[in-house]
Hints:
Layout: H1 4-23, H2 33-36, H3 40-66, H4 72-86, H5 88-97, H6 102-130, H7 136-141, H8 145-163, H9 165-179, H10 184-192
Amino acid sequence: MNKNRLEAFSDGVLAIVLTIMVLELKVPHGDTLEALAPLLPVLLSYVLSFVYVGIYWNNHHHMLHAAKRVSGAALWTNLHLLFWLSLLPFVTGWMGENHFKPLPTALYGVVLLMAALAYWLLQHALIRAEGEQNSLLARAVGGDLKGKLSLLLYLLALPLAFVGEWLAQLIYVGVALMWLLPDRRIERMLASD
């Protein structure tokens, strides 16, 4: 099965997710910097979520570039990933509007955890579609330490959101920083193939 439709559809959904998130930002009533102060939590949560969507878009592109074909299972796991990413505008807005309170911060982490798990499932569905031995993607990701570490950190952040929201937020920012650059393993594998 050709992967072009999968990539085009995913790009479209992610563009809509970004559009919905920016439309949630409300214009302040005032023309001073002080008028922006109450919006700071909303703006910070938007920036973090924008970075996360950018990370997923970038790495999704690299992953599909390494994959030669998709299967029905890959189509469904891709929809699973897009479902969780489509919830980002909701949890982003809730977390920002409530100034990073524990429950909205934890729910934000649940969405990040589930999106990471869905990405991992998609990666493995693409590998299975080509066969482990023939898959350039399988060779590129190897043991996927970064992916497994992300899942573990998100799991850790969930209870920490109720101990100190800032601890969970630091983990979310840390994981984003870890993934900010596209996966170089895939780029190296594509260059050598």
